Structure formats: structure tokens, C-alpha cells
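Example 3.2
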Amino acid sequence: MKNQWNVDHNEFTKADIKKVINTDVLVVGAGNAGMMAAAAAAEKHAKVMIVEKEASINLLRLGLGGVGTNAQKRAGLTINKYDLVEYLAAFAQHNVDEGLIYHWANHSAEAVNWVEDNILKPHSAHLRSEPDAMVTSSAYEGFATENDPTIDDQTFTSYGDWFQEKIAELGVDLQFNTALVELTKTNEMVTGAVVKDVKTGEYFQVNAPKGVILCTGGYSANKDLLKQWNPLALKKNVYNDSPRNNGAGITSALNVGAIKDEEPAECIFDRGLVPVGTKTDDMYVQTATYKDWLWLGSHPLLKVNLRGERFANESVPYQFIVNAASKQPGYQYAMIWDDNYGEYAKQFHTLGCARVGFPGYMASAEKLEADTQQYVDKGLVVKADTIEELAEKLHLPIDALKKTVARNNELVKDNIDKDFGKEAYRLTPVDKKPYYGCILGGRILCTSDGLRVNKKMEVMNAAYEPIKHLYAAGNDSGGFFFGSYPDRVPGLAASHAQTFGRLAGQQAAEN
């Protein structure tokens, strides 16, 4: 059989199918969306099977967004849902299905509370609301949506193993090393899927009369699909941090008549360290270990293009500086700072995973400095006693960088950014040696332009009618994001996946 879209170029016939497996609901992908979908369907007494092409579940994200969660209520925190939804719609220039965003806001607390009650509390853990979303200007508006899993209120706790125990307790059949090949469809209704054991190469038919839920996580690992649907991503990004996401869920649905978002959406972090002299066109590293990930890259320090010139307000959402750099020569940029950067980090008041403080990966300025030092030792962050020497090591024009640094220091002294409008408290001098610098590019965490779905998480066809018994959640589902990821709503991606996964699982089980 051959489909128009065929991620793994599978060729098989009915004679190749070695056995038939019967279940009620088939979930494809064991990540945030898939694990929640499976649990929700099993709780409604459906027989559930998950197939996952890798040998483990995907990372269950820390920092779960939500509106009106129990953790937020305990903290006395109230979020204005209408302001939040309008912010998200406006961030996307309303290139979204705003009703879906309201649907998330109305149901997000249910999913977050379920995780706390069913996964965390049995293991003496809980969620801590992160209330600190200080708004200092219209450019840095933020919402206190984040709920962090923790045991000690000092650090994050991972809960993937606990979640896996829970779905086993619910009777879910989780099959690893099993990849989706194609969906099966009878009389305009999806009835199951053909899957493949990636170790043996054997094909199986899975019958799932109640529904198939696609949760495979977008297509950021598939360069061919990026070239077709989001070619600029290959120029902006030097790393892909989701090497599992090959687009199999989306393409399988397109083969049975589904439609997807027509414009790309993605989540990019500004933490991609590259050796000086690297050409963006020569680098797109797939990594599951966050190779050469510079946390400091998301701080609003001085950033210049490859001509040594400042080119944007550094106090913007993480992805925006990468977007801005795509309009500069070489698509990359340099970040410049001095020996006081640990003190500057304390005053920046970053949000989400870049913040210094509880329970971030950089829990203190000292940890941030230690993280940075490892890249000095590795040679990816260069160090110099003069700006001239720094420019030489970074292959930047010496006179241009000296002029830019002098102008930056002048703006700090005047306590106003007359060039790009960065908040005064985020202006920092470059005047204490040693000086530091590095070359940065984007790291794409995921694509989020997915299949068009309705509020039942049913995948829609070209007539905007549901394809019966086909559902999508997480980054396989669309209509929610456009362009850049709104990181000023911390935990949104994980919450979007878990909330819609839960709704998809409940809906499928009720068929």
C-alpha cells in the first residue's frame, strides 16, 4: 500500500500483517497528550492501547499551565480568563480558533488537578503555583499560569514513571517500539491502524472501533516536512530538541482526508550555542539531551548581529530574538556580557524556565554561572580582557562591536534605551572584564501547526466536518497556535497537550 504522505516509506500488503489486535481506543504516542488520553479513556472503562515508536515514554513536561487550578486557589491566585484568552488570540493575530483557546481555559484546571490528585499526591508530591509574573511593560506582559510538580517546594520532581504506573493500574496496554504506519478507514469512519514493530519489522492490524487518538507530537524532526511546511525553521534553528517528532500522526490523518493548519507555528528557544564560524545551512542537530543548551541565552543581555550591530529589543519572548535574527545576515547573532552577569541575572526577572529562582533549573545565580562556565571550558563561550580581543574571537568587526558596546554603556548611564526601548532595569553595562561572548541560533522544541480539530478533539476534513472516530491532541492538533509560542503564559504547551488529550480520551471512550 502507498499513501501520498508516507513518513517512513512503508510498503506492505495485507499478507504482511502478522496478527490482529482488538482494543476499544488506540492512542498513538506516549507523551503529555497520549498518556492523558489513555488514562481518561481507561477511566471511562474503555479498553485502551498505546503504541509508541520509541523505547520509552516521552518527557512529561514540568510546569503545567492552567486557569483556576487547586494549586492556584491555595496560593490565593486568580487569573482573568478573558484577558488571558484575548492575549493568546492577539499574540497569534487571531490566526487561531479562539473557541478552542476558551475550551482550553475552561478545562485546563480539570487536567492539572487530575495530575496532582492521581499522579503526584500518591507519591507525596503536589503542585506549587508560581505566582510571580510581574508585568513591567506592554512588551513583557505575563500571566501566572504555571503549576510546578514538587515534593519539597524547592525543586521540580519528575513524574513520568508515576504516570506510567498509573496507566498500568488502569489496565492500559502500552506497547513500545511500535510505530504507526497508516490509519484504516471503513465507510468514512476510522476503525484502527496498521502498526509496525520497529525491531522485528512485523506489521500488525489494530482494530479500535471507538477511536484512534493521534498524539505523536508534530514534525520538527522531519526535514522534508519542514522544507514543505516551514522552511524558515531550517534557517532559524541549529538544533531540534524533539527528535521523535517525525510527523507520522499528521501525515496519517492527511491520508484519510484530514486538513491541517495552513501556516506554521513553532516553539523556539534562544539557547542554541554553536562554534564561532558555523554556517546555519550546515547545522540542524537532532538531540534528545539538550546538547549545548545555554540557559543564559534567554536573558536580556546585549545581542548583536554578525556585523556587530544591535538589532532588536532583547527584552522580548524567547523566540522573538531568533525571529529578529532571521532578518539579519547569517541568521545567527552574538550575545555579549561582562563579569557581573550573575548579579544582572537576579534583576532581570525572567519568567518560565529561564528564571533564576524556584524551582528553575537555574535555582540561583551561582548555578547559572556554573552552567555558563562549562561552555567557557568547552570553547563555545569565549572570554577576553578587551572588547577588541572579544570581537576577534567571535569573528565580529572590531570597530562595529566597540561602537555598539560604547553605545550600550551610554544608554545604561542615561537609564533609558533610546534605540530599542528595553526596560531600564534590564539595561546592563559591558564594562567589567573579563568580557564574554558567544554565537547563538534557535532550538526548535516542536512544531504546533497541526490537524484542524473541533471542541470534541475530532479531526476535521476539507468540509470542516469530523472524520468519525479520529481524534488528535497535543502538537498533532491545530487551531491553537500561530507563528511563535507565547512563552509569557508559562506551562501552556504541556497544558494544551494534557487538557486536550484528556478531552479526546473521554470523547473516544463515550462512542
